[in-house]
Amino acid sequence: MRTGTFIQAGVLGAVLVGACAAPPPPTPPPVPADTTAYGPLPETGRMLELRLAEAEESAERGAAVPASRLASLRMTRSAAVLIEEGSVERALALLERALAIDGSTGFPYLYIGYIHLQAGRTVQARTFIERGAALMPLYPPLENELQALRLAARVEDAAVRRTP
Amino acid sequence: MSEDSPEPPLPASAPEEPRPAGARPARWTRRLLTFALLAVPPLLAGVVLWGWFLYAAIDRTLTEKFAGQRWDFPSKVWSDAYSLYPGLEAGEGLIRRLDRRGYRGVRDEPDDHGEYRVLELPPAVEIHLEPFLYPTHRERGRRIRLELDSSGRMRRIRSLDDGSDVYDAALEPVLLTGLHGSLREDRREMSLGEVPVPLVRAVILVEDRRFFEHHGFDPRGFARAMLANLRAMGVRQGGSTLTQQLMKNFFLSEDRTVGRKLREAAMAIVAERRFDKGEILEAYMNEIYLGQRHSVGVHGMWEAARFYFGREPRELTLGQIATLAGMIRAPNYYSPHTKPERALARRDVVLDVLYSTGEIDARTLAAARAETLGAVRPPPPPPGASHFIDFVREELADRYSSDVLTSQGYSIFTTLALERQIAAQRAVSEGLARLERDYAHLAEAGEARLEAALVAINPRTGAIVAMVGGRSYRDSQYNRVVEARRQPGSVFKPIVYLAAIGRERLGDVHYGPMSIVVDEPFEWEYDGKVWAPQNYERKFYGDVTIADALANSLNVATARVARDVGIERVRDLAVRLGVDPALPAYPAIALGGWEMSPLDVARVYSVFANAGLAAQLIAVSKVVDREGRTVEGHSVEIRRVISADDAYLMTSLLEGVVERGTARSLRAHGFHRSAAGKTGTTNENNDAWFAGYTPDLLTVVWVGFDRGAHLGLTGAAAALPIWADFMRAALDERPASTFTVPRGILFADVDPQSGGLAVSGCRHVVRQAFLEGEEPVTRCGLH
After folding, report:
1. What is the pLDDT of residue B264?
2. pLDDT tens-digit series, residues B416-446
3. Is B90 within 8 Å of B148 (Cβ atoms)?
4. B138 interface with A at CB cutoff 8 Å
5. Which candidate, B455, B456, B512, B513, places its Cα nearest to that of B654?
6. Taking chain A, what is the end-to-end CA distance rounded to the nearest angstrom?
7. Is A74 part of the contact surface with chain B (CB cutoff 8 Å)?
8. N or C: which end of chain B has fewer CB within 10 A?
């Protein structure tokens, strides 16, 4: 056996060993298709309830809470309920109204992105999800959900592109 | 007597003896009888044949009319709805909005749709919303209570029915216009089942009591009417049945001639053979003319019920039903709007008829007579938004023919915010008048008249909320927002600076907001030519920061930055931001030497205002057919153009323009909200621009002459005041908001002169935004 061949075999073997030893890539959590008490996006919905409760409490105490933000959050929550009930078109109209009133939180963007994702409009879904994610607080469970949304948008997009 | 002898002369004729009985008829009678036997049958056959053809022709005409779409339904163009939420101002502005929609102030709790009342203690406004069919749902007309705080802003919105909080309340869209064909008629078709039975009975009793007994033409009724007319020596009664009236309205003229009456009768007879009484009655209820709304006829009971009483037919009281039935004979003579006394008297006549025929009892009669007329104010004429409507029409013309738009009864929902449109028109009108008053040369520019254009959009959604294409649509339908191509001047400069300071760092230069650029004359050689840009009033400022160069709109410094970045890269960035790809790459574009429309400028600036995202500009949000099905819909569409960090950086620089730069007079015009913007003045001072935005609204204003006459005013002097007036009014009822700071932005207090971190000796200190990692680290070297 020639030396060169022996070296190549050794390198190949080392690569194979390394591949077996490396940890598997993390499996992204699936995008929840069923609904929960917090609507179609559980972590986002949980965060929305939290933010809304904080804002309402502050407003009750007389703190200066931007009224448009409060209104936008409430509309977004109503829209999440509509999505759960299957009134997606109405939810989208309400979310766009929420966005028109205030764009300082990511919640309207995320739910709009979710609707676009469900409808197969992946390019728009990605843009809205990215924008929404940029405005959301850094919170691991929420991050997982957002990552799942991003990946779902890319997978859908790839599937569409593969379709002849 | 021989054969040749002449015949003996005839004896003179003797008088004829009378013909004895039973003898044969005379020759002429025989001829007549023969003629009759030979000719009459064919004549009769001819008459029958002709009659049959005539019948068939009428039948065919009627069938075509009734089988297809019987009427043309104009499409209706609607404004956007007005969202109600806590934080909005609820004083005079809200009342004006309600008035504009035809709402009526009442003292007691608003029981009827379209009513409201204002309470003092505790302060509140109660509204009974109008029912409205939105594209996505039906608003059934809820009763809501807006609880106010001491400053007159909404604190909470609750349902009057169950006390629950309401978060999705809105005032319904306003009808801007109808797209009518040659027949200017408004109607909404309804089935016979939707017509209240008392209304059907009242119409029949008043107009055609024997409707169910005759077959289209009523000889008895006709004879009675003729007798009445003879006695009165004039036309007092028509004697036409409902069927005849329907035929006249569908097919014939208003001429009072025998010929027309005969045709009408013939058609009515054929119609009754072809269609049953229900179909004829239903068509009648939808066809009948019942008044005038400005230049448009009100047809059909549904439209009339809404027009006169603000109700759907099923909600009408007996008195209102009697009023409508009584109006048929002469709608404008008995109009509840203009002739209430006559309308009341005629109503009572109809009520008496209902009572005398046993339709109602005495108690019901008394109750109905005691009702007030109940007419609502005629709705105000739709506000002028003519340039915007033209814009919508042109957009729709790509997809729908004029025939479809004027006959299919689509509802076209637009993004126009009605009150903002009114504010825009007022700002333009008053702004131009003020300029002509303050600068005499503007009013004396020969045939040319000073003009302006204003367009306002929501940068997050791309919705066009106001559009004014010129000072007077009546004088000129030219829409300067879309069609005017003018040099933007300094309004283009932010694109140059974005190319230099953004994260992408187009080119080899590395600028930040506090980087120093030299504002001294220089020559730019390009394509074998030499260009020497000049500053306004030929003043030069030496070493200046990027922020100051933009704030003070220094031409030379800007040209230097554009040369350093590379004009091709500036051009490419401009196209990405939405400028026409035909934009050439030559140096003068850095100072706005290329033509754009105000809408183009709005498109570019919307990217800065919307965190680097370009929202597709939309004027039509939905088109819905008469059955409520969506024909087309446009959701918010966004695409990433630049990073949110770069967009915020640009916004902070443009805030500097407002705070201390060429737009600093904005505060003196009474506008105190967070705002970013750029003035623009072209070289010859022929165009004045201001493009500016808050977090919620972006507006571009242009002022100048159409034919390029000399304006002689800067953007700050001519366009900015109009912008300020409009934005103050447009945002008046909304709570204040601030620009959202993205994560990749840091702030530092710097000396604007040196660009270094501020020290105690610095007299002027600015809180400047920087991209993370690019904030200055050295202190001010000047103090």
Report:
1. 83
2. 999 999 999 999 999 999 999 999 888 876 7
3. yes
4. no
5. B513
6. 49
7. yes
8. N
- In this complex, the residue of B635, B644, B735 whose CB is nearest that of residue A92 is B635
Q: Does A88 touch chain B (CB under 8 A)?
A: no
What stretches of B136-239 adopt beta strand conformation (E)?
A: 138-139, 143-148, 154-159, 170-171, 175-179, 185-186
Q: Is B596 helix (H, G, I), strand (E, B) or coil?
A: strand
Local confidence pLDDT in tens for the 164 residues of chain A: 566 665 555 545 554 454 454 444 444 444 444 444 456 788 899 889 999 998 888 888 877 778 889 999 999 999 999 999 999 999 999 999 999 999 999 999 999 999 999 999 999 999 999 999 999 888 888 888 888 888 888 866 666 555 54
pLDDT reading at B16 higher than 80? no
User: Can you tell me the distance from the alpha carbon of B387 to that of B421, in angstroms, rounded to the nearest whole number?
Assistant: 11
The shortest C-alpha distance from B462 to chain A (Å) reads 9
Does A70 reach chain B within 8 Å, measured CB to CB? yes
CB pair distance less than 8 Å for A78 and B458: no
- Contact present, B129 and B169 (Cβ < 8 Å): yes
**Alpha carbon distance B176, B74 (integer Å):** 13
* Residue B508, pLDDT score: 66
> Among all chains, which residue has been given the structure tokens 């960090």?
B645
Inter-chain contact A75–B87, Cβ cutoff 8 Å?
Answer: no
0.90 surpassed by complex ipTM: no
Q: How far is A50 from chain B (nearest CA, A)?
A: 18
* Nearest chain A CA: its distance from B737 CA (Å): 7
For tokens 């008046």, the residue is B732
Q: Which residues contact B479 (CB under 8 A, 6 or more apart)?
A: B387, B390, B391, B453, B467, B469, B470
Coil vs helix vs strand at A3: helix
pLDDT digits over B277-319, tens only?
999 999 999 989 999 887 788 999 999 998 999 888 998 999 9
**Cross-chain Cβ contact A93/B135 below 8 Å:** yes
What pLDDT, on the 0 to 100 scale, is given for residue A33?
Answer: 46
pLDDT (0 to 100) of residue B2: 41
The amino acid at A59? A
Q: Which residue of B has its CA nearest to A130?
A: B640
Predicted confidence at residue A141, as pLDDT, reads 80
Task: Say yes or no for a CB contact (<8 Å) between A78 and B168.
Answer: yes
Indicate the pairing of strand B524-526 with strand B175-179: unpaired
Q: Within 13 A of B434's CA, how many CA atoms are on the CB side?
A: 15
Q: Where are the alpha helices (DSSP H) in B452-531?
A: 480-483, 493-501
Cα-based distances in Å from B408 to A13, B74, B181, B547: 75, 6, 11, 56
- A124: closest CA of chain B, how far (Å): 7
**Cβ–Cβ gap A93/B611 under 8 Å:** no
Lowest mean pLDDT among B199-208, B298-307, B371-380, B677-686: B371-380
Interchain pair A68, B136: CB under 8 A = no
**How many angstroms separate the Cα of B284 from the Cα of each of A4, B227, B288, B310?**
100, 27, 6, 21
Q: Which amino acid is at B48?
A: V
pLDDT range class, residue B229, cuts 50, 70, 90: confident
DSSP per-residue string spanning A98-163: HHHH--SSSHHHHHHHHHHHHTT-HHHHHHHHHHHHHHS---HHHHHHHHHHHHHHHHHHHHHHH-
Query: Cα distance from B673 to chain A (closest Cα, Å)?
Result: 14
Q: Which residues contact B68 (CB under 8 A, 6 or more apart)?
A: none
B88 inside 8 A of chain A by CB: yes
Least confident stretch, A11-25, B466-480, B578-592, B607-621? A11-25
**Quick check: B687 and B666 in contact, CB under 8 A?**
no
B168–A67 C-beta distance less than 8 A = no
Q: Is B133 on the interface with A (CB under 8 A)?
A: no
pLDDT for the residue numbered B235: 62
